[in-house]
Amino acid sequence: MSRLLRPSWLVVISVLIVSTKSAVAEDRVPPKVREVMDSAKYKQAHWGLLAVDLKTGDVRYELNSAKLFAPASTTKCFTVACALDAFGADLRFETPIVRRGEVNDKGELIGDLILIASGDLTLGGRTTESGEIAFTNGDHTYASGGTESELTPQDPLAGLNELARQVAKTGIKRVRGDVLIDDRLFEKAEGSGSGPGRITPIYVNDNLFDVTITPAKAGQPADVKWRPDSKSFRIETHVETVAKDGKTETSVRDLGGGRISVSGRIAEGHKPVLRVLEAADANSFARTLLIEALSRQGVEVEAPAAADHPADKLPPRDETLKLPNVAKFVSPPFAENARLILKVSHNLHASTLPLLVAAKHGERTLSQGLRRQHDFLKRVGVDVDTISFGGGAGGSRADYTTPAATVQLLRHMATRSDFDAYRRAMPRLGVDGTLAKSVGADSPAKDKVSAKTGTLYWDNVMNANSLLTSKALAGYMTTSKGDTLAFALFVNNAPLRNGLTTTAVGKDLGHIAELLYEQP
To answer: What's this model's pTM, rounded to 2 decimal places?
Structure first.
């Protein structure tokens, strides 16, 4: 095990458990922060807060720090930390294509090509020229739930195109067999957050179709574009442009047989609307797109591209891993995956991390991955008996933690050699990710807070509104005095009514961060 390098301004601590004996919790909430928490809109809500000086370990602010709260997506702080510990910030996923069969003097492979899925979360589809993984402040995985999502400009098929180029370079001109996807790295599972829900070792564009709908003149069909570009799927569009004051409502549906319906209406002058559709089967989706990528490189495949994945053709796993390589795609370092997950709160990728951790240890299930996370947290001094997690993203009904346990984790991460990667991955207040709009452009705390956000709400069907189960913020702050704090701030069980929205609550948490930043 490598020796951990500790920043010079940190004291060495053996146990990262926060003491709460020296003061009454209510005495540690600044009056202006108390005003926000005690406002009428939060009458039925519960607040938790803990902020600790990273250098001295002193508790600065505290409220209900030992109580359980639903953490929402601040759960990802734990998930990413465990994955960083398991993989290291510099790990690169390697996705190979192997051949089963020989290549004759005509360039014909008498057999199959097999892509062995490695769990690469982006497969080149977001990689910039500088080798980073691109993100937008509103990720496309959330596109069906609002209008803030945007696409990154990179080609989502970049990884498959590169693999196809390498296959062609080996001299293979024709595949007389089939193209297969070996997805047996771990067992399938369902994600615990909104967005695409099927966890798999193979992701191409998050296994989504992106559909961008742009209005024309009222009475004319809207312009509809989609990606990934594929000739094997038929997109049927029925979207009308209505008057400027008309209602915008759109839907994207899988009709089966490779047919996708895009329907609805969009108001003239409305900004383009992004909608997504999850592929029904990840392996079939990847197989089709890979066969088309091979075709673009001049490699013909006798098997039809538009067909279900023939999983029964796969050889045993141990035999597959011994087959000769004909191509290999290498990802950016894992620190970039961590950055994407935390910046945009990527539920699908966060849900996948425990399974990847399990696979690293020769295990296959989500429960085994979460047990590995338990062992990591216990080893680094986090009170695991005050935590309950049912998944990696923060949307499980079993997810609970305390402000104290969260700060214990944050303090441990600050002692590690990969701390810069961890902190860099978090959204920056007023700058990017899910914190981009939480404070105004002139906020004194702008870019002084790097923290993970969390939002979880459920439909209150009886009252035709919603219950905000959790709004949360956890990370690091450099105060106006130059001190660095690790903090966790939770509000649970706030009814969303009388104009109170998740966005408004998020701005209140941003305001509390400003108040803590300015405290003497």
So the answer is: 0.93
